[in-house]
Design a protein that fits this description.
3 strands; about 400 residues
């Protein structure tokens, strides 16, 4: 698929993304600029996280630009290989000296000079694969077999996620897959059937002691205010302290070792504290507008099924992760290890989400219709028709007007 030279990228999508990453860099510095006793024990200075975040951001912008130069047709061809590659990376987290354990979870692989979380790449690879799969001629929305294949692939990845363990990635991958299947028009009774099957498994998983404790803390965090409910209560305090306009940028009290993960999973709570309800609402609106721009891009590409599903899936992937993060920070959903896209500190998620935006920008330029190829193909068909009626010598005396060699390759 060739892109027309006279069309531009979606400038609103690009502007919103740059606003979010710029604001994210500011909030990462704000949340880590105070050297707390915890940072001091680890010899971490006030610019330690900020410099690493800026380095990742620069690489991410290069990834975004690179994604705008890759044709959608190429993405379609590498859909399956990319999914296999992400699966291999996911397995590598369990290999000694390659996989890294932190906080009781084994989710990262060592990539000098930093680390990488393969589960983030899995989400992107799954979206590209689903876009390819849903656009296949043999895919049928009324076929249970067509429904089972992506569900089975999703299940394989989820089992590995749970072995790490990473319940947040398990949930987000499941939601992305199910929502994309619903967008494709799959029969809802299939979705309801798989949901009925998943409920007993989910209940069993949630009965694990540490997960069950997290659920209880979510339902009543004040019952264990110094234990399982501590993080959520501190998030409430941060949001409540911000009021309408906030305590001021850089003036947060909760980042002084009160609110855990204030620069990653709970950075939205810090936004609410320092910039208040107004600042938090602006962030929510930016993600809403980003999602709407992504859906608009998908609708404009509706004439090509792969491109439509790809743009829809990428928009859903980013929006769902942001929505879950908002829900966790405000106590609507139990605590999950999901960063806020573009805003939280976390290199893997930032790189993958910028890649996703790069693909969306690429799609936003539109698909150039193969007019020249169509004309050539039509000419060939007309000449074949003349030959069948009049014969080769009468239709094309002295070989005039015959299709040139290689012209058929324009198809």
């Amino acid at each position: 698929m060739n892109m027309p030279e006279n069309q531009h990228y979606d400038r609103w999508l690009l502007a919103i993304t740059l606003l979010l990453v710029g604001f994210g860099a500011l909030m990462v510095y704000s949340s880590t600029s105070v050297v707390t006793p915890i940072f001091a024990r680890r010899n971490i200075t006030q610019f330690f996280y900020f410099k690493r975040h800026i380095l990742t951001l620069i690489i991410g912008i290069l990834f975004l630009y690179g994604a705008t130069r890759i044709s959608v047709h190429t993405l379609k061809k590498i859909a399956v290989p990319l999914l296999v590659f992400s699966f291999i990376l996911l397995i590598l987290v369990f290999v000694p000296k390659i996989g890294i354990t932190a906080g009781g979870a084994r989710r990262w692989i060592r990539l000098w000079p930093s680390t990488f979380q393969p589960s983030e790449l899995v989400k992107l690879a799954m979206v590209i694969f689903l876009a390819h799969y849903l656009s296949l001629p043999g895919y049928r929305t009324d076929s249970i077999f067509s429904f089972i294949i992506p569900i089975a692939i999703m299940g394989v990845f989820q089992v590995i996620f749970l072995k790490q363990p990473d319940f947040g990635a398990t949930m987000s991958l499941g939601l992305i897959t199910i929502v994309m299947l619903i967008v494709s028009g799959i029969r809802l009774r299939y979705v309801m059937s798989i949901t009925a099957c998943i409920i007993p498994i989910s209940v069993k998983l949630l009965m694990e002691p540490y997960r069950f404790k997290r659920i209880l803390s979510f339902l009543n965090p004040w019952q264990d205010a110094q234990g399982g409910g501590f993080q959520l209560i501190q998030s409430f305090i941060a949001l409540g302290s911000g009021g309408l306009s906030g305590v001021g940028l850089g003036e947060s009290k909760q980042k002084l070792s009160f609110l855990p993960e204030s620069h990653t999973d709970f950075i939205f709570s810090l936004v609410g504290e320092e910039l208040g309800f107004i600042g938090a609402s602006v962030v929510v609106c930016l993600f809403f507008f980003l999602f709407m721009r992504g859906i608009r891009i998908a609708n404009k590409a509706a004439n090509d099924r792969f491109t439509y599903y790809l743009a829809s899936g990428l928009s859903i992937m980013i929006a769902l992760q942001a929505l879950i993060n908002f829900f966790v920070a405000t106590g609507i959903a139990p605590t999950k290890g999901l960063p806020l896209p573009f805003v939280s500190y976390g290199g893997s998620a930032l790189l993958v989400n910028l890649l996703a935006v790069g693909v969306l920008l690429n799609i936003s330029r539109g698909v150039k219709e193969p007019i020249i190829a169509d004309k050539a193909e039509g000419l060939i068909r007309r000449k074949k028709a003349l030959m069948s009626v009049y014969g080769r010598s009468r239709a094309f005396p002295e070989g005039k007007g015959l299709p040139k060699a290689g012209q058929r390759s324009l198809r």
